[in-house]
Give the backbone structure.
Amino acid sequence: MSFREKHLWISIIASVAVWGWYFWFLIRHVAAGRLVSDHFTGEVSLAFMGSLVVVVVVEVVLTIIATATTPKSERDTRDEREILASLKASHVALMALIGLVFCVSAGAYFAGLLDDNFVGGPAVFSITGEMMVLLANVLLACLILAEMIRAGVTLMLLRRAR
């Protein structure tokens, strides 16, 4: 396995483990009705910052291990197939991100339209700090999913190119 493939696996595993826990934590809080709690934003913010630190530390440590276990000549060279696979995967991930952000935007728009026009005012989807935190987390999930798509498609293309 090349150094680039090792690094992609590190990114996928760290993201699934850490961000998976974070979103499980967030969903559990929302499902328990804590969205209207005074402490919701603080608890979610602490979990986010902790997850961010943990994912950085895990990726750095595992990358150092991958670097130590890979010959220097293999780490430095980046052939055309790796560059092409990376470019193709980045394009796929960008298109996925555009689609995800469009869906989130359309959902927010229609929720606001439904709320104002059919329910009779801001009774259902009122814009609060907690709702903004929730929307920010939906957008964060879109970014993380797009990055996972990029890493996964790159791995698939590198394996197929062999």
